[in-house]
Amino acid sequence: MTGRIAFQGELGAYSHEACRQARPGYEVLPCRTFEDAIEACRAGEADLAMLPVENSTYGRVADIHALLPGSGLRIIDEAFVRVHIALLSVKGTPLSQVEAAMSHTVLLGQCRGFLKDHGLKAMTGADTAGSAKIVAERGDPKLAALASELAGEIYGLDVLARQIEDQSNNTTRFLVMAREADHSRRGAQMMTTFTFRVRNIPAALYKAMGGFATNGVNMTKLESYMVGGSFTATEFYADIEGHPDDANVRLAMEELRYFTSAMDILGVYPADPRRI
Question: Is 174 noted as a catalytic residue in this protein?
Fold first, then answer.
């Protein structure tokens, strides 16, 4: 056990905040890419990896769903983090002097209203905290960053405006990944995440989903994405409420397997209280 949790981004990223919230006793390990964070966990440099999967305003985080099935890691928890966006600039800069704001594409899409109202040009950065770091290094008052207030504290920037996100309930869902699955826990509400590919028969997806409806299993997410660069090979990613050992979930899964060519449970974990 290393007592470390890996995440993508610089110190001060929202993934850093998620780590502090979900695993406050762990040392954080910043990584350049999602793949690097996954590999750090797989290689034993970290015990866990914190990965963002979706945002309530922007939608799915690109590439994550495609990376999860082949990661070799398993989901052991989820964490919902309320995303408060701040406009950060070098000390002593008035808002009127700022001409552009830099951040990750996902975050830029979460505060379009503020940028438009203040005539600020959106500039794409590698990530949120990384953009704050760049603003601090350049020292140009015309350039600001959109990031967390934690990033502002770390890189010595002033907060020119806070909570500027378009939606007041702006939230990002993260998954806590580990090398080994843990299906032993039971709580008031459990979640199961899995991927599957349907057999090449008419109405296969419709038939595969029928078992969840007839057995009263609530499916909270179903998404598809191409695999292997083929327009005909489609994998589905799903979240359902319940545990595979629950009678109704077991029956639904049995029916799903009949109509699929592949199925893999990525994780069984307690629902975050914010979901409930």
Answer: yes
Q: Which tokens is 167 given?
A: 């939606």
Interatomic CA distance for residues 259 and 223, integer angstroms:
17
Say whether 172 is catalytic.
yes
Instruction: Point out the catalytic residue in the list 57, 93, 172, 193.
Output: 172
Tokens 């922007």 belong to residue: 58
* Distance spanning both ends of the chain, measured CA to CA: 31
Query: What is the structure's pLDDT at 229?
Result: 64
This prediction's pTM: 0.88
Nearest by Cα to 82 from 214, 174, 215? 174
Residue of 34, 174, 212, 259 marked catalytic: 174
Whole-angstrom CA distances from 125 to 47, 88, 91, 136, 139 are 28, 14, 21, 14, 16
Residue numbers of the chain with a pLDDT score lower than 50: none
**CA-CA distance, 118 to 185, in Å (whole number)?**
49
Distance CA 266, CA 76 (A): 9
Query: Closest by alpha carbon to 134, among 112, 111, 157, 115?
Result: 157
Q: What is the pLDDT of residue 228?
A: 67
pLDDT at 198: 87
What is the rounded CA–CA span in Å between residue 150 and residue 211? Answer: 45
Q: What is the pLDDT of residue 233?
A: 60
Paired residues of 97 in beta bridges: none
